Amino acid sequence: MRIGKGSVGDVRVAVGKKSITAYFDKQLCSNKVSMQPKISSALDPNSRDALGLAWSKFFHANDIAGRKADCPYFRAALKITQQLGPTPIPTAKEIDGKYLDANYDEATSFLQKFKQDWKNFGVTLMCDSWIGPTGMCLINFMVYCNTRMFFLNTIDASGQTQNSDFIYRQIEKVVEEIGHEHIVQIVTDNGSNYKKACKTLIEEPKYSHIVWQPCAAHTVNLMLKDIAKFPEVDIVKSAKTICRFLHKHNNLHDNMKKNIGGELIRPNATRFGTVFMFLESYHLKKDKFREWMVSQDWKECQWSYEPGYVFSEECLSSNVWWNALEWVLGSLRPLYKAMRYADTQKQCTLSGFKKSMMLAIQRMEAHLGPTSRLYLSFMRKVCKRIDAMEEDTFMVAAAVLDPYTHYSLNLCNHTNYATALTDAIAKILDPKSALSAIDEVSKFRECQGRFGTRLAQEAAARMEPTQWWFQFGGDVPALQKCAMRICSQCVSSSGCERNWSAFALVHTKPRNRLLYDKLHKLVSVRYNLKIRAEEDQEKERDIDKEVDPSALLIDTTMFDETNPIMEWLNEDEEDPILDGADAASAVFEKIRRLNSSRKDSYVGTKANKKKRKRNHDEENEYVETDSEDDDNENEYVDNESEDDDGVSEDDEDDQQDQQETQMQVEEETQVQVEKETQASIGNLETRRSDLLGRRPRKSTASTRRFAGAWSMMLVGGLEHGSWSFFNGTRPPRPCFHGFLLELLYVVML
User: What is the pTM of this model?
Assistant: First the structure.
């Protein structure tokens, strides 16, 4: 390969007999940095544009979506690059070599610290197979424990017949690798080979405590498939016919998107849940479709001679067709919601799925009627799938141990549910612990001890089942252990299926020469790093959700009427300041008046002291000059004493009146300052937002805590007259008040 100079800004690259012109920045591509970056470059406003332009070239040249820049690992890489400065750039061989191995080791160590939860909560092993674009067949294994899912291992099954014997051997190896004592259940799809392999495994005495759980999402998907075969749901065929005609011609398809303002969701051949989404996309565009059917644009369509044109117009203009579509949506919506619940990775638990299915059946009964023929036909299909999913599993026992279901339905009182709970306890615990747990069931059934408290009943609707049992199950330790291992398990292998997108992205045609070991490392690193990033983002969201009373005083959302602190702030409202007035100046004026009244009180008290001292000096002078006549002296002294006492009593009355007046002024001023301090905060933030032409920026948690502490000090100090924060008894001067308010304003911005 030869590189020669071309025109300015490009390089001529010769590859064999062919040559191409590559446009790139030669200085940026250099692996060496000629000079150390200056501080002025960081302060230059054009630096951001230069950085963005350079990175956008990399994104656009490699077909990387711009939203990938929001990845926390990309931002972390940029920050560490800025910190390290002129460091040599890693090569492609290093990234796919030692750095891939380092990331794989880090992901493995990240998994190790969560293995301590396996003993308390147990794990669910999920597996599924996949065939890539290059014909490589892989079996994917995932581990689920306490709302966390991790990529564990991949087995190369290329050239192997995936019968039940082969799958049994592979699953047994993974079970031993994890530790069979930690595994509670194995979740796969409903394929006959996986079902037979798992049944063979759990029949062995060594693995008798493990159960096979069919995938709930796949099961509900099969329910929708069975219901879609009924003639009453035949409207799906007509909707598909209309969709095919509208997508048949490019100009007609484009005309449809313009008239209905969007696109139709097309159904998937194997995902029957998409049928509901397909029909719902029609229903959401109902008014637009009907307007389009009577418009001149539709009448002048060049494809009006085709049969699909007449059929589409008749259906989309008919009230009967739209009513039938709405009826089908009402019939399928309960099952669709149950499938969506089962398809969620972290929210769907073994204890919650039974509750969601019971709710779906109740909604279908209310929509179709409890005695209608169609409802009974639907229920035969649904109950058949549910019975197969609950047979020899922990699903019924998990529903009994679910705290929310217990307080609402108390399934323990039903014989079949109580029997399922007893069988689950005997399977998951050793005989001695199982006897203790069965004895403790009566306390849970009759709501004795902590189970009967109001706090436990209210927490059941808000807390996760495992958290609830950890908090309130201390009186029944054996049953608590069993409940935490059962209720925390997942019920679907959807996360395992989502991981195939990682294989599809990694093992593409340009990289079809990847060996199995490298492919396994790439997928493991990609999936576990993604899970780690999602977990960090959830922690940040949980921190933002924490309520700080001090932060409520400063947060811009405090001016929302739904904020609970507004009820306290609005107890004594007064007329607001005019738009032209400066709220901060009004606050400073009130503080000046408050300190002025304190100063007058102090000056008056000091004058009274000087007056009493002057009278006392005059008294001593009269005593020394009139010592000749004792009687006159005594009489004079008595008169002076009486006069002095009279003066003291008058001074005390005046001082008391001044103090009462001053205290009244202080109280009125304190209330006014408190209110106007709050108003000034909102006005300053709003005026700043108006100048910048955007909404107020939400403060970070640290900023809210810092600004909230200062605001509580200001408002609380003026209200209670206590300035112990400054280690003194007298309040600060007005200039210090101004400094505090200015500091508060700067922190908010």
Answer: 0.62
